[in-house]
Specification:
alpha/beta; Rossmann fold; 6 helices; 43% helix
């Protein structure tokens, strides 16, 4: 996942860095996570796009060895309401990660900046306040055609990408927690 081929992580970069540090973890840490419970906060507004994103996200869970029947889907009126629904899911202790899906399409009014920006900042707050990944899978496009293109039923679907991001972020957080619970080299408690 990258904006351009020019911004790809170079081959071998993770191994090169891992050789220089004490612990290095990435989104593949711990292998598959079949027991992960993912909550989906989905916007009804532009719901045809949301449906395409959610279908691809559920497909991605299955392809990753996760059980979609462990998921919760909660429908919000629109993208502006997604952070509140995501917060409730994250605090419910029923999920390990939250994926927020919807589409904000620029129109003739200034609502686009308010809705898209507030949705993004609200979701960032959810994950920082709860420690549960809250993935921004909300399309922010200029046109309906762009939203349709980003929700095609293929590898480029942004709902699919959001689900894989949730699994990967969960894996990193679990690995960091495991690494943090081990002994700290060069650190002592008490006197000198």
């Amino acid at each position: 996942m990258t904006s351009s081929d020019q911004t790809l992580l170079p081959p071998g970069a993770k191994d090169r860095i891992a050789a220089r540090v004490g612990t290095s973890v990435d989104s593949t840490a711990g292998g598959p996570h079949p027991g992960i419970r993912v909550g989906f906060a989905c916007a009804e507004f532009n719901g045809g796009i949301t449906d395409r994103l959610l279908t691809a996200a559920l497909d991605a869970l299955e392809e990753s060895g996760c059980d979609p029947s462990r998921s919760i889907v909660a429908w919000a009126a629109g993208a502006f309401e997604l952070p509140l629904v995501a917060m409730r899911l994250a605090r419910s202790e029923a999920v390990d990660a939250v994926v927020c899906l919807g589409a904000v399409i620029r129109g003739d009014t200034g609502h686009y900046e308010f809705v898209a920006g507030e949705c993004a900042s609200g979701l960032q707050r959810v994950q920082l306040d709860t420690g549960i990944p809250a993935v921004f899978g909300v399309l922010t496009t200029e046109t309906v055609e762009q939203a349709l293109a980003r929700s095609e039923p293929d590898e480029t679907n942004k709902g699919r990408e959001a689900a894989l991001t949730a699994i990967g972020t969960f894996a990193v957080l679990e690995a960091v927690s495991s690494a943090a619970s081990g002994p700290r080299v060069g650190f002592s408690v008490g006197g000198r």
